């Protein structure tokens, strides 16, 4: 990744930005907020009708009633109910470069790989794919866990058996990928669930 320096001395990544994000876009003319269109031309709205115009705008950070802050964002199901994304179980490394380390499992799909972009990032084992080596899912409706093969060419084993299709996980199962063995420890299930 080669950084580029703008004429004002700022450095930026040209693969992510077409121009310096610190300097902004040259020639961009931001105008004042206008009344939301109601069939009439907002440019011809009378300046004396400011109260009607203000009810169609909002301050930054202010929520509109009945809408989430980020209406288009995809959220995991427990977020809607609890206002947080609680842990539902763990993986504990019992063999391999990260021996002794634990990894939190959250509700729904958890992608496993070496990359920090994965939900469960297992560093130190270069025989594990960067992205989506495996998937561990938790179904909040059935309170059940499953192990699924990912998009990697590397194999996954559950209790020394190759996993080539989704399979149910039970407490203390051993998941093996690369040089790493992980013990599955559930929190949610028959005896406990988040409400």
Any overview of this molecule?
By secondary structure, this protein is mostly beta strands. It has a domain at 87-186: Tumour Suppressor Smad4, CATH 2.60.200. The protein has helices at 50-54, 77-82; strands at 4-5, 11-12, 87-95, 102-106, 108-113, 120-121, 134-139, 144-149, 156-158, 161-162, 167-168, 174-177, 180-186. The model is unreliable at 51-57 and 64-68 (pLDDT under 50).
- Regions with little confidence, pLDDT below 50 for 5+ residues: 51-57, 64-68
Q: What name does the CATH topology of the domain at 87-186 carry?
A: Tumour Suppressor Smad4
User: Radius of gyration, rounded?
Assistant: 25 Å
Structural class: mainly beta
- The second-level CATH architecture of the domain at 87-186 is Sandwich
- What share of residues are in beta strands? 25-35%
Give the biggest beta sheet. Answer: 6 strands, antiparallel
Gap from first CA to last CA: 46 Å
Output the CATH class name of the domain at 87-186.
Mainly Beta
Counting H and I runs of at least 4 residues, what is the number of helices? 2
Helix proportion of residues, in percent? under 10%
- Integer average pLDDT: 80
Strand order of the largest sheet: 4-3-13-12-9-10
Number of beta-strand segments: 13
